[in-house]
RNA-directed DNA polymerase from mobile element jockey
Amino acid sequence: MDTVVQWNIRGFRSNFEELKLLLNRSQSAVVALQECRHGEGQVPPRGYTLLLPQGESSGGEAALLIRNGTRFSEIDLKTGLHAAAATISLEKTLTVCSLYLPPNSPVSKLCG
């Protein structure tokens, strides 16, 4: 059974080995990561695709890791938030969004 996992990783590079262990044990189809702070040239673990927020090539606080072979389509979010999203085809079709809200940032209620 495919799983979706969420992890506030607190540093993609500093916790890369733990991330690989998690992926090997869980065989997750999708991992939503926050506080990535991934650097330029950082590559995803083997067997996974890394989706960053639109327009970001390095840095950033949110990301999705999607297992290769999993059908997905990236969603172009029109927002200033640190967020990456995709529609994923598993047993069901899911929309997964990884969102990072900095602790001191004001958040306004957008809908009723």
Q: What stands out?
A: Residues 4-100 form a domain with the Deoxyribonuclease I; Chain A fold (CATH 3.60.10.10).
